[in-house]
Amino acid sequence: MKKKKKGFMSSYWNSDKTKTEYDKEKAAKERQERLERIRAKTRKKKEKEAKVVKEVKGEGEDESAEALSKKLGYDVLEDVSTVDREAGVGKRALSKEEIEAKKKKAKENKEKLSSRDLLKQKIRDLEEQISNTKYNKKTQHAIGLMKAQLASLKEKLASGGSKKGGVDEGYAVKKSGDATVVLLGFPSTGKSTLLNNMTNANSRIGGYAFTTLTVIPGVLEYKQAKIQILDVPGIVEGAARGTGRGKEVLQVIRTADLIVMLVDAFKPLQKKLLEKEVYETNIRLNRKKPDVKITKTSKDGVRVGRTVKTPELDDETIKGILNQFRIINANVLVRDVVNADEFIDVVEGNKVYIPALTIVNKIDLLNDEQRKKLKDYLKPDLCISADKEEGIDKLKELIFKKLSFIRLYLKEIDKKADMEEPLIMKEGNTLKDLCLKLHKDFVEKFKFARIWGKSVKFDGQKVLKLDHELKDRDVIELHMS
Ligand SMILES: Nc1nc2c(ncn2[C@@H]2O[C@H](COP(=O)(O)OP(=O)(O)OP(=O)(O)O)[C@@H](O)[C@H]2O)c(=O)[nH]1
Ligand SMILES: [Mg+2]
Question: For residue 307, how many other CB atoms are within 10 A of its CB?
Fold first, then answer.
């Protein structure tokens, strides 16, 4: 009994303080310890955040929102949409059974490191290794191989995940018009406001995140082209990995002819974050598909032919990367200056190459000086105010240009051309493309065409070749057999 008492209050017993003094001191000490724990936790959280921002912004810059605010001369409210993320937005409420099932699953997962976890760990390790390796001529080869290994691991992880469902559901959108443009952005950046201003649509607008929950289409008629514009739910950080409805939204974007990325003027870092999410969904923005052909063969190993030098990718690395993807025999023809990343993209073959515009919205809230600083910092294609309808006409023109439309006017023999209803096609399209668009038999029946316009040397020129490239506002008279 005595022993227990002594053990319990031994410190008090042994000290010459009164009990009240002792209790006070003890409480203060505990308070201090609690504070330390909270501080350590906050420090850790901050370090983690700083790491994310660093990843997004790259090395060498002061990444904090505070520093950015100073640079731009106004408050940058948040680096990323913290509020939106914390709200757990975009997730549908789960039923009791689903919650139970989730809990069970989580427990199981915790108990044993699943193969998926191992895969994820490997990916993390490899990413760390790559980022820790300084890029130079000597390390180029090794980095190329590590990147190939990383890509194949990620592919493995992604294909494993799709079995669980939910990935390939997507939103059903019927494409219509001459082209489809998707408005991409974090929640509340003004996508719906912009859609309503540019088109006949009426998408709900709200001062809260995730007002739009599905795909809302609208049609923009501009210079006789009918452009379908899709307003989609906002995405959040981690969308490519499935946060919110991110995967479904990004899936819609893969089929777009143009992506308009809308960035909130008060959250400039959204630009890099959006680009990152898009990149992780295997979309490459504003880049043309590299001209690299890989033809698998049955023997003789990997043979590389090239019409250009690729300083960042030697033949050995090409072979190493292909081996990583279990391609031992192949003929490779390189006709573009590519690096390891771009070459891996070709090997994987699941990338789409889409043009994009970066548009900053809510510019009405900034003064002239702030606007200038923001433009210098972000270098967007255009700054607008969807709400105050500032810059909307410029945006329409930019979209039209970026879609590289050409207008073609068809003419019947001995009649005037119909200048009211052009046929909308794309830069680089040929007479063959035109024939294919009109009727499947036209290519075979084609004899020649008479053309008036920029694609020919003189008006009414007779053109016999189907691969003749057409130009904007050409007038064409088709002669068939
Ligand atoms: N000041 C200002 N506010 C704007 C502008 N554009 C949109 N807003 C406001 O921003 C809020 C969000 O607008 P929405 O158009 O609903 O944004 P969203 O991107 O469609 O949002 P989600 O559907 O949640 O992804 C609304 O309160 C709008 O009135 C703008 O140019 N200037
Ligand atoms: Mg919306």
Answer: 9
Whether the CB-CB separation of 288 and 295 falls below 8 Å is answered with no
Q: Is the CB of 211 under 6 A from ligand 1?
A: yes
What's 377-393 look like in SS3? HHCCCEECECCCCECHH
Express each pLDDT in 244-258 by its tens digit: 667 777 888 888 999
Domain 179-280+362-402 coded CATH 3.40.50.300: yes
Domains 179-280+362-402 and 405-480 share a fold: no
Pairing of strands 225-231, 179-185: parallel
Q: pLDDT digit string (tens) for 401-458?
A: 999 999 999 998 888 888 888 899 999 999 999 999 888 889 999 999 999 999 999 9
- Is the beta carbon of 209 within 6 A of some atom in ligand 1? yes
Distance CA 399, CA 257 (A): 10
Angle, CA of 399, 402 and 404, to the nearest 5°: 115
pLDDT at position 479 over 70: yes
Using the structure block, give the residue that is written with the tokens 């200048």.
Answer: 419
And the tokens for 266?
Answer: 């008060």
Sketch the domain layout of the chain as residue ranges.
2-63, 96-162, 179-280+362-402, 292-352, 405-480
Which protein residue has the closest C-alpha to ligand 1 atom 8?
190
Decide: 234 in ligand 1 pocket, CB within 6 A: yes
| 88 in contact with ligand 1, CB cutoff 6 A | no
CATH class as words, domain 405-480:
alpha beta
Atom 5 in ligand 1: residue holding the nearest Cα: 387
Quote the CA–CA distance of 70 and 67 in Å, as a whole number: 5
